[in-house]
Task: inverse folding
């Protein structure tokens, strides 16, 4: 990499301390070397959180780090996402979550690579940002409102992009999300509760500036190259772009990896009709509108003609067959409620899967809607459910029914039939998550090339490579779907054109490995270790569709994975590895 | 109190984040209401730390808050001190420590009410401040140097006031202090280890500004009134001013409260000669020079003619009879070593008392000097000793020999004979400390009026009042010795003259109570409770000089104290009390 420039990155971080005694708004210039090494987004967030030391998730000392990447706000394809890093109240790990829409580009155009929120306001507030103007305003009248009303109110006042919490975040529900522009979720790890714990209702950002590009001609050339690759990829152009993510339902059910009855069965009961959940059915019956995030040619989001967002694949899978609810309409409604209260759809579905197993019958459509509302409002049994699947199952005396890793419930792919993906759940640093390594791509979608989903052989290496790769992608911050068609080579090229810093695909992979190791160190510091890199016993003990995971083989693969990572036998990064990555271990 | 002004306070706080990813220097304006309610110094530090949430003491997330008060930098008598607040690695409680000299006045003249240090530098650094200019500089060449060499080097470069750590702080010894201008210690709670954990070697401050005074005529009048009261007080004018703090040795030995043999005996062995430790002997034999802190007419510090500081009362008491060392010269040498390595004299003496009891013989003069050096250098047995008396006694299997409260070893007054002081040790929020309530004044020095030291009757109330009083005094920040002659009435008057905000003595007492409660909430949040508000069993079980503390009476007094404080039976502040003090309970 060559010398530093002011291109791509804004080289300005906004930091807001909400606390009574240290309340202030300041701006600082991050080191260029930090941006070079950690890129932005998730990487920058991880480094900031690791450097900041140990905190409790709901303490004022926890930080919310909203971070863009060097490509954000340019017209690089699929670069419209934005990352949020914080310590999770649900998993206790370092956590990042990214969402699409236009919040990230707005931040960048307002002049900021990142916005760090520290402290806790004594009164509910929201933050209003328009370029250099940054103000804290009272949110007393908004407190108690859900996401759609809050977003509507704030949008009425201006044209900024909004990120806010609903009642779930206010009530510190550990499944709470932050929702941007009413439908894009910073989901999974309860980041909405962290925002709620700071008495911060919303952030509104409007930016009128531009992102400087070092070499415009080269940028145009690379952009064309990427767009061509996206179009040339049938998974995108004939799948995602046409049907949105629910196109996966048919594929996973055909592969028998669509979870059924809390991951206990291979197929739905005979009278359970999957057809209403298929993307083709939805397309034919509703003819939904296509929606795209900022600067994205894929346009995978779908909404009803009358407005109202439609659920993604994970939600459709987990709120349908896995809880034995046959009604797609109820999933649509529950999904909207999740977005309105600001709670995570996968996690709500996960805990309902456990609930349904424990009481021995499926969740009816009415129950799905009512229970979702109760989780969002922290009412009745919703309070216990809202603590997440690990806590709920333990409180019921049946921890074995919690289908999760590190407290995060699993997404909608049964690991018995996608063993690499299962291994990546176990070694994920934010808990049971499919997007860390996104082995959905090679094991299910056969991209960039197909690998055998039914074996663990070779999966230690695949997991490492894909974890590193997507750590870099999350730091750029680019949508993973683009990587079904394009590769890190093309994004390294466009990154070089934007920033004027020479990046190769190897540089990106190395940055990804650096970020992964910083995140591991964070979790090791929190007490996580080998015992946490494991799947629920069910997958080692109960055959489904004739498949099970061999525990001995799994543990051998884990040892192999640690060796490939340069970690010791307990999964702690060795000094030599850290030195090569330029990371200092911190207390 | 009337409207806000810019007098007294600078209304500017300097905040420096040393971490790699958030490194920056910023300045912010604290709310006037915060300054009105918490005054400055310890109060401001407590509020900032409480608002900042839970952290580990040696984590980058811990803060160092150096804070002056509204009177600092004026010529108010005895206003030359400066406060430092942080979470203690020794006690796990909130901690503040204040020291004299000129560091505080220099901060204030440079334009800052407080300096907050956050984060951890990847490399050793020091901070250089001259008015608006604030720079981080490499301390690579200073790392490994002790206090005197470090201070000498930094003083050579300019005329600023220095606060630095020695090798003990660098090595994270839990007894480490921060030392200002080579002889003034921020002592007791291991604050030097916090500074070391941040890779911060020193802060140098030079200020050329002035502190604005609202009503100069009234200020002069009040200053004269205070000076007159100080001179009129014989404890000051014929005690402290003539002999320095060691004048107490004769008084406490006469009262039989000078601790002997780790608080196990009433008097030294017959062949132990106390005379060399008496202030009069020291005065006659060495004719030391008087030294005063900035703007202090008392001038209680003493140094040898050839330079070299002499030990204070606590050090003389605890490094002599209590460890059965008969050699005053060895105490002088050990005291200087403590200041050079940057370790706390009381705590080193305390752990040596325990060490001597466990091995069944006193500490020889040579051993005192050698062991002090080993603690400072974290070598040999010094490593275990340096962890403090609770840790050391526990590791030896004899926790009962640790004479401490909340891990902080007791100062040089046997609580059996000064029962109020003993009760104040137990209820102190920073562990076994005489300066929280400073009942030395009424129980030993009979100021402002004598109270019976041999009973617990009435001591719940006295403790509360004196705790609140000195919480305010530590926040102003004024030396407690001034309160042997003057009172909160006079200081409220001069505070009003300086700031233009009307304060009465009741306002000061209320501020003190507010601060005490914030500190209590901090400790409650850390898990401290009733079980920690207790003295070592020895004082309830072993008679010395025919005196013992009745445990039942002690516990009744504790209940009474909680009631008077408006706390529940576990010592947790009740909502009503917090509401009246304008405090919000925080997670």
Result:
């Amino acid at each position: 990499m060559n010398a530093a420039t002011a291109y791509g990155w804004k080289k300005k971080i906004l930091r807001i301390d909400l606390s009574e005694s240290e309340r202030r708004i300041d701006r600082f210039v991050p080191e260029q070397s930090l941006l070079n090494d950690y890129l932005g987004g998730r990487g920058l967030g991880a480094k900031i959180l690791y450097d900041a030391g140990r905190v409790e998730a709901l303490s004022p000392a926890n930080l919310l780090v909203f971070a863009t990447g060097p490509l954000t706000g340019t017209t690089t394809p699929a670069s419209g996402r934005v990352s949020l890093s914080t310590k999770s109240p649900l998993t206790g790990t370092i956590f990042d979550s990214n969402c699409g829409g236009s919040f990230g580009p707005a931040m960048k155009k307002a002049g900021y690579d990142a916005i760090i929120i520290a402290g806790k306001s004594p009164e509910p507030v929201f933050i209003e940002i328009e370029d250099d103007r940054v103000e804290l305003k009272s949110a007393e009248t908004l407190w108690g409102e859900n996401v759609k009303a809050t977003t509507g109110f704030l949008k009425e006042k201006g044209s900024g992009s909004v990120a806010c919490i609903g009642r779930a975040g206010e009530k510190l529900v550990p499944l709470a999300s932050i929702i941007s522009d009413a439908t894009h979720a910073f989901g999974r790890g309860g980041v909405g509760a962290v925002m709620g714990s700071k008495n911060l209702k919303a952030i509104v950002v409007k930016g009128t500036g531009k992102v400087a590009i070092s070499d415009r001609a080269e940028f145009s050339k690379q952009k064309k190259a990427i767009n061509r690759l996206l179009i040339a990829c049938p998974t995108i152009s004939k799948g995602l772009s046409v049907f949105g993510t629910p196109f996966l339902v048919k594929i996973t059910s055909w592969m028998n990896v669509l979870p059924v009855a809390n991951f206990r069965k291979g197929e739905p009961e005979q009278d359970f009709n999957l057809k209403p959940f298929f993307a083709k059915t939805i397309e034919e019956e509703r003819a939904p509108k296509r929606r795209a995030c900022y600067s994205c040619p894929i346009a995978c989001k779908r909404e009803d003609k009358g407005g109202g967002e439609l659920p993604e694949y994970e939600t459709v899978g987990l709120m349908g067959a896995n809880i034995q609810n046959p009604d797609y309409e109820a999933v649509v409604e529950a999904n909207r409620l999740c977005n309105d209260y600001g709670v995570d759809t996968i996690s709500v579905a996960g805990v309902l899967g456990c609930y349904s197993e424990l009481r021995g019958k499926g969740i009816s459509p009415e129950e799905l809607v009512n229970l979702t509302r109760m989780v969002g409002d922290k009412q009745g049994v919703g309070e216990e459910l809202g603590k997440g699947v690990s806590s709920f199952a333990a409180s019921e005396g049946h921890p074995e029914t919690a289908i999760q890793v590190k407290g995060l419930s699993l997404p909608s792919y049964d690991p018995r039939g996608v063993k690499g993906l299962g291994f990546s759940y176990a070694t994920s640093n934010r808990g049971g998550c499919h997007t860390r390594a996104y082995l959905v791509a090679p094991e299910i979608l056969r991209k960039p090339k197909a690998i055998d989903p039914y074996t663990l052989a070779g999966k230690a290496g695949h997991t490492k490579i894909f974890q590193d790769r997507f750590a870099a992608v999350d730091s750029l911050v680019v949508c993973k779907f683009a990587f079904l068609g394009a590769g890190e080579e093309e994004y390294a090229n466009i990154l070089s054109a934007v920033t004027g810093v020479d990046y190769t695909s190897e540089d990106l992979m190395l940055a990804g490995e650096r970020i992964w190791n910083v995140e591991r160190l964070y979790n090791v510091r929190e007490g996580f270790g080998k015992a946490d890199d494991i799947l629920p016993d069910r997958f080692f003990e109960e055959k489904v569709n004739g498949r099970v995971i061999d525990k001995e083989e799994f543990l051998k693969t884990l040892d192999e994975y640690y060796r490939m990572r340069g970690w010791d036998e307990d999964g702690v990064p060795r000094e030599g590895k850290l030195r090569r990555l330029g990371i200092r271990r911190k207390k």
